[in-house]
């Protein structure tokens, strides 16, 4: 959603200035005209740093969408009309979510379908979400689809919470290490350097390396910032290219522990989403096309696109999955084959998702167990390097007397 400043006249000719939120300029003009105003000009409002902070603070999180879906599913399941349910949710929702619900309510009251109203907010509702709502509308089972969708979103939030919880401890330790290293380089090392210069001490290699790093931080900090910023910008630019995204995603999968965990997490969400779509009446081909666009890894995304093409040509789904062993484990093609033979694709995909979830939980526990000693070893090496670099010249000086 973008913000637009407008100038308009009312029926009496009075000049009115205001601000609206819309997806596009034409949408903003439509909203202004709906207030019985004559549009004179519309310009996009550019955000100040304060507006950016407010927007970040009021951003819509996946947890907000999950909560909205659960409340909406409960109301629709209880027999409340959709417009009345949205009216209640609009009064309960705050910030950006309240604005989105208000816009959805206005579109539905204007005669548009739920799925079309949701599709106007792609930053909030994913293509998977919209496709499921559309299938529920077409099949007349919107309440059932919303309940399943709410269950799926809450389960994803719980699982992501476990993964993030496992990474909090090592993240705090690493941040602490970086802060201590900067303090040492800015305040401690320069004083020691002046001491070494007074005695004309011959500095060992670790000390010269440490002093060089300190000089880079203090004396040449603009160049250091430019180099670091250029490296980050170059990596992001390379990552945005098709080849760069593929190479970095392949590298991510090859990382020990983290790579396999990332793979299991993606496969858990993928199979869960396909199971949910199959149960809602979405065709497997459409489900594959949608998930290939929203999956977070290009290796699996490209494989899904090829699977979709193979299925469209008439090949079995299990055969198409089996052609990509680098992206999908053998158990997935095996279970999909069972689902095709028995006609219980939803149930089979749900069980596969559960298998991947259990394996992911085990890998999270392994990661938590392995990270602590690894971080301690790295911390010990860093502290040891600092001690050697600082103490060794002093020891050499004292040994001369």
UniProtKB/TrEMBL annotation:
- Which controlled-vocabulary keywords does the entry list? Cell inner membrane, Cell membrane, Membrane, Transmembrane, Transmembrane helix
The residues the entry assigns to the signal sequence are none
Does this entry carry the keyword Cell membrane?
yes
Q: Where are the transmembrane segments?
A: 166-189, 209-235, 374-395
GO biological process annotation, one example? protein secretion by the type II secretion system
Type II secretion system protein GspF domain boundaries: 68-190, 271-393
Task: Return the protein name.
Answer: Type II secretion system protein GspF domain-containing protein
The organism that produces this protein has a lineage beginning with: Bacteria, Candidatus Woeseibacteriota
User: What Gene3D superfamilies is this protein classified in?
Assistant: Type II secretion system (T2SS), domain F (1.20.81.30)
The GO cellular component terms are: plasma membrane
Q: Does the keyword Secreted apply?
A: no
User: What organism is listed for this UniProt entry?
Assistant: Candidatus Woesebacteria bacterium GW2011_GWB1_33_22
Q: How does it sit in the membrane?
A: Multi-pass membrane protein
Q: What is its main location?
A: membrane
UniProt subcellular location: Cell inner membrane
Family assignment from sequence similarity: Belongs to the GSP F family.
Which Pfam families does the protein's record reference?
T2SSF
């Amino acid at each position: 959603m973008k913000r637009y400043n407008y100038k308009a006249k009312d029926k009496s000719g009075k000049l009115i200035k205001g601000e609206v939120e819309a997806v596009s300029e034409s949408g903003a003009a439509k909203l202004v005209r709906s207030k019985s105003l004559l549009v004179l000009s519309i310009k996009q409002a550019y955000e100040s740093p304060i507006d950016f902070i407010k927007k970040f603070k009021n951003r819509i999180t996946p947890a907000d969408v999950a909560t909205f879906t659960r409340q909406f599913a409960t109301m629709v399941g209880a027999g409340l009309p959709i417009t009345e349910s949205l009216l209640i949710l609009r009064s309960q929702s705050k910030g950006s979510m309240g604005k989105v619900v208000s816009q959805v309510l206005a579109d539905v009251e204007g005669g548009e379908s739920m799925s079309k109203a949701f599709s106007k907010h792609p930053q909030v509702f994913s293509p998977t979400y919209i496709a499921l709502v559309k299938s529920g509308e077409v099949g007349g089972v919107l309440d059932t689809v919303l309940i399943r969708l709410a269950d799926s979103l809450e389960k994803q939030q719980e699982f992501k919470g476990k993964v993030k919880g496992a990474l909090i401890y090592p993240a705090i330790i690493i941040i602490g290490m970086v802060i201590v290293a900067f303090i040492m380089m800015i305040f401690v090392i320069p004083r020691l350097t002046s001491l070494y210069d007074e005695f004309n001490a011959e500095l060992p290699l670790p000390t010269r390396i440490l002093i060089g790093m300190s000089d880079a931080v203090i004396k040449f900090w603009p160049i250091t910032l430019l180099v670091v910023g250029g490296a980050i910008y170059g990596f992001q630019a390379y990552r945005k290219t098709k080849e760069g995204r593929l190479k970095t995603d392949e590298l991510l999968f090859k990382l020990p522990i983290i790579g396999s965990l990332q793979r299991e997490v993606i496969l858990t969400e993928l199979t869960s989403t396909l199971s949910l779509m199959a149960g809602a009446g979405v065709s497997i081909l459409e489900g594959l096309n949608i998930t290939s666009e929203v999956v977070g890894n290009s290796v699996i995304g490209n494989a899904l696109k090829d699977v979709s093409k193979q299925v469209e040509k008439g090949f079995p789904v299990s055969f198409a999955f089996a052609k990509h062993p680098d992206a999908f484990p053998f158990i997935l093609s095996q279970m999909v084959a069972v689902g095709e033979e028995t006609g219980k694709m939803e149930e089979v995909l749900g069980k596969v998702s559960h298998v991947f979830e259990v394996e992911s939980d085990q890998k999270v526990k392994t990661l938590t167990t392995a990270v602590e000693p690894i971080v301690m070893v790295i911390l010990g090496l860093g502290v040891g390097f600092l001690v050697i670099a600082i103490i060794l010249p002093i020891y050499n000086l004292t040994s001369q007397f």
